[in-house]
Amino acid sequence: MKRILVMGISAGAGKSTFARKLGDLLQINVHHLDTLFWKPGWKESSVDEFRSSLEEIVTSPTWIIEGNYSNTYDIRATHADTIIYLEVPRLVCLYRVLKRWLTHLGQTRPDMAEGCKEKMELSFLKFIWTTYYPRKEKMYKRFEQFQLTGQNKTVIKLKNKAQIHDFLHELERKHTIL
After folding, report:
1. Residue 12 and residue 94 in contact, taking contact as beta carbons nearer than 8 Å
2. In 3-state terms, what secondary structure has residue 93?
3. DSSP one-letter string for 4-44
4. Nearest CA-CA partner of 83 in 169, 145, 170
5. Per-residue pLDDT in tens (0 to 9) along the chain, 178 residues
6. Which Gene3D superfamilies match (predicted)?
7. Cβ atoms of residues 156 and 83 within 8 Å
8. 166 touches 95 (CB < 8 A)
């Protein structure tokens, strides 16, 4: 695992937290897509700017890129050797998004671009609720494509808090032995 994508079923899946812990364990720099996409005051980067910044990162020998953003999936997936996919239940995602909002109210999260104070909109909660299952289907089709096209990628699916914890614990154990 040297070039790792951390993706999730939805916002609130735990991608940022997981990626930080993974980066600490493996001593690999973590890049949060939200910090690359958003500019201060919640201004969006252009698609060209966003893609260009990712194209720079993926040329490095090691990286962890955390986030979903379909419009740059091709860049990340082409260069990744490992994809870790977090698929926690939909209600857990909603709970975590609301908890994150309350925890960081009026502040900028560490995995967010500077000047983007935490906010909550009903449309965002609705997005999480309505896109959960279509996104799940889309991700499984993407993973199937790796097998069908013979791409040598490791796909790790973690579906709950216990699996996520066990994965990180086992990785830490292996690194302690080495």
Report:
1. yes
2. helix
3. EEEEESSTTSSHHHHHHHHHHHHT--EEEHHHHHEETTTEE
4. 145
5. 999 999 999 999 999 999 999 999 999 999 999 999 999 999 999 999 999 999 999 999 999 999 999 999 999 999 999 999 999 999 999 999 999 999 999 999 989 988 999 999 999 999 999 999 999 999 999 988 877 776 788 999 999 999 999 999 999 988 776 5
6. P-loop containing nucleotide triphosphate hydrolases
7. yes
8. no
Sheet containing 3-8: give its strands across: 30-32, 63-66, 3-8, 82-86, 154-158
Which pairing describes strands 63-66 and 43-44: parallel, antiparallel, or unpaired?
unpaired
Closest CA to 7 of 140, 101, 168: 140
d(CA 126, CA 136): 16
Q: How much is the CA Rg of the chain, to the nearest whole Å?
A: 16
Rounded CA-CA distance 140/1 in Å is 21
Supply the DSSP symbol for 137.
H
Nearest to 133 by CA among 1, 10, 3: 10
Residue indicated by tokens 């799940």: 136
Give me the amino acid identity at 67.
G
- Residue 113, classed as helix, strand or coil, is coil
Residues in the chain: 178
CA-CA-CA-CA torsion sign (176, 82, 34, 120): negative
